[in-house]
Design a protein that fits this description.
Layout lengths: L8 H37 L19 H51 L16 H11 L2 H71 L10 H36 L8 H15 L5 E2 L3 E2 L2 H20 L1
Antiparallel strand pairs: 1-2
């Protein structure tokens, strides 16, 4: 049987989470700083207008102040968008990292199922058939040699089964601990970010609808409304990233579930079967990432948002 070394997955995931949480916190505070610059400091330089105006009143401003304010405002908008995207990418990168740990479990289970032994016990019995001395000695003292062989085969088989059971239980225990830590971290991510994901999905969908409706207007001025295209792309990518990561995590969970079903559990010890059933129950109850604890974040949700956005944009064009 191929030996798969045990590994302290809990410590590895904890180290990963500490690194990723630091990145997420740094990105989050950077986004807040960009929001402060965009919505608090900018109106001081641009009184009487919104913090993020769609069109600049060129006729009411005099050069070079207009150019300076225009460049500064575009820079602040760009910084805000890039920081928000970095926050999204960091959060999604952490989710993808957890998914990679889930794929490690699936690979381990597949290899274990592939190399799970159907042993030929005769290869563990050596030296009996060619040793006349052993035959004569044990035949005189313990009866027939056939009885001796049957007894030794039984003891070898029993010792092998015990060793195999111990190894199987240890292997499953390591992977269960690994899997429990992954589910715990996914639940922690969902608890920390479900409200922000809900707000970003709602804001991204509204931003995408408004920006697309402005861009599809017949009287659009592309030079002045080029920022609306940036907003539309940003809203599109913001929704797609979270929905894709949510779907990817659930798909990796299904891969682990399929790997568990493919195990030869019917040949295993009842203790190992109990561990497999426990792991299946945890997989069945895995919720993944949600938006506001209301709806699961996946590509189906993304398609529904896109359908709603298409209907909303068509309605605005008619108006």
């Amino acid at each position: 049987m191929r030996k798969i070394d045990s590994y302290s997955w809990t410590e590895e995931i904890q180290k990963d989470t500490e690194r990723w949480y630091t990145k997420i916190a740094l990105s989050h505070y950077t986004v807040l700083s960009g929001a402060v610059l965009s919505f608090v400091i900018l109106p001081m330089f641009y009184p009487g207008e919104r913090a993020l105006p769609y069109l600049f009143p060129v006729d009411n401003l005099v050069s070079p102040y207009y150019e300076i304010v225009y460049v500064f405002q575009c820079f602040i908008i760009l910084v805000f968008i890039l920081n928000t995207v970095s926050y999204d990418l960091t959060c999604c990168g952490f989710l993808m990292r957890l998914s990679s740990h889930m794929e490690v479990i699936s690979t381990n289970l597949d290899k274990f199922s592939e190399y799970y032994p159907c042993p030929d016990y005769s290869k563990y019995i050596q030296g009996y058939s060619d040793s006349e001395k052993i035959i004569s000695v044990y035949s005189n003292k313990h009866g027939s040699f056939r009885d001796l062989m049957n007894y030794d085969n039984y003891m070898i088989r029993r010792a092998y089964d015990e060793q195999l059971t111990d190894y199987t239980v240890k292997f499953l225990k390591d992977n269960i601990i690994h899997h429990q830590e992954i589910i715990r971290q996914i639940s922690k991510v969902d608890m920390m970010f479900n409200q922000s994901i809900f707000i970003q999905l709602m804001g991204g969908s509204i931003l995408f609808c408004i920006a697309a409706s402005v861009l599809f207007n017949e009287n659009v001025i592309w030079l002045k409304d080029s920022r609306m295209g940036t907003f539309a792309v940003f809203g599109f990518l913001d929704m797609f990233l979270f929905c894709y990561c949510g779907t990817y995590i659930m798909n990796t969970g299904e891969k682990v579930e399929q790997s568990l079903y493919s195990l030869p559990w019917y040949e295993m010890h009842p203790k190992a079967r109990k561990m497999i059933s426990y792991m299946l129950v945890r997989l069945h109850n895995m919720k993944g990432i949600t938006a506001g604890r209301v709806i699961g974040v996946n590509l189906d949700l993304y398609l529904q948002i896109m359908k709603f956005a298409h209907s909303f944009i068509a309605l605005l064009k008619e108006l």
